[in-house]
């Protein structure tokens, strides 16, 4: 090639625009005073205040409906019981979630590489998804007790239940993503004699990333729900009992305030999981995918 | 110009599995260093010709005779859409063919930089496709085709989606590069001005089924004068192609 250089014309101007930036504190203050933060905050505070007032004026006994202040007090007082329980549930959730990610991604790659695998396995993945976990949890618990020593069998059984629930959104979303590759890009790869492995690595997997991350956000929440539901069914006590067991015990003892405190903790954990997955998604897609781009109006 | 053929289509026909005959009995040759355009109405099978030559489609009847033994390794394709990887920078997009051929990042750097320089994208190496306008994306697509030093460049209405100003500018740049680099190009377009401006020969196609009905040689030697587009011969050639095109599509609308 010789070195002729040709400049793009004026009509081909670049369209990217940098978003206006201030320093860290300016951005923080602007964020915190934005309508997206203020509006839900006002609604939340109004709701809590009217709840508290209702409980006081109507003299509702705390074993029917405790006020939000009592819930906070209980949370503070029972911290030493609730937090370790939440930690157990969190561990179950994370292990099940990671297992769901690995198995979901590996299986979806196999499904797209080979039609035979897809035809023979996909229906059973659907069966696994549509069978209510509450119905099969007792079976899973019985079987793991047969196979594993008692100190670890409950944990494993709960992980399996949570994994069954969390697995399917990752499988179906990633499969959809792997099959949604731009046709012209496929032609480009064919033209340059790309191997199936190269096509997977450089084309299919990156194309599937936004879909996979969408599935991830659904699965994160489902893994937590799966863990809690399975704990309810298992109803196990002892050293390694999760937050759902605490809810169960509190309801037997009519400690409704503690129940509320435990539910509050689960909700916060769920929000935390969703939020971190959203941050991860924006980090990975920030510079290219439509879903993560900020536009100025 | 010495007439050394790059490839020759011999009685090539293409029928799709639903029975539609896209092309019937095509015969034509593209010579080394020659810029050949295929013009015709939308849906006449112009793009199908390119895809057959690139081996992205299978021929139903006839054959393509190559003078070279490994033609697949030496051709490049510029598609209607820029077809860039949205997650990769301009540099990485252009490097793709070399990466797929197993060339290391360090070895390919010079070649990629040369291609970027040639299409006028210096300074945009680390931009992402979404930051670029349609014309610049097309330049990236062109650079990706050039990076392998192809012996044959296949272009499928590459500027069809661009506005008139950008199209004119890119035509101008393409002509200058083709003249300097002595490229062999098979160019598909429905814009006859573009075809006359760029080509040594314009092949006119009819549709249903696609056949070549006329060949108009544009006897204005490379390098063409800067004001070729405004000259009398240019308009005479355009008129000739327009007449052939009208005859080719007669009774079909």
From TrEMBL, chain A:
What name does this protein carry?
ABC transporter permease
* Signal peptide segment: none
Query: PANTHER family under this entry?
Result: ABC TRANSPORTER PERMEASE PROTEIN, ALKANE SULFONATE ABC TRANSPORTER-RELATED, MEMBRANE SUBUNIT
Domain annotation ABC transmembrane type-1: ranges: 86-275
Membrane topology classification: Multi-pass membrane protein
UniProt main location, coarse: membrane
Q: Where in the cell is it found?
A: Cell membrane
| UniProt KW keywords | Cell membrane, Membrane, Transmembrane, Transmembrane helix, Transport
Protein family: Belongs to the binding-protein-dependent transport system permease family.
From the record, give the transmembrane residue ranges. Answer: 37-58, 79-109, 121-143, 155-172, 211-235, 256-277
Q: Which organism is it from?
A: Spirulina subsalsa FACHB-351
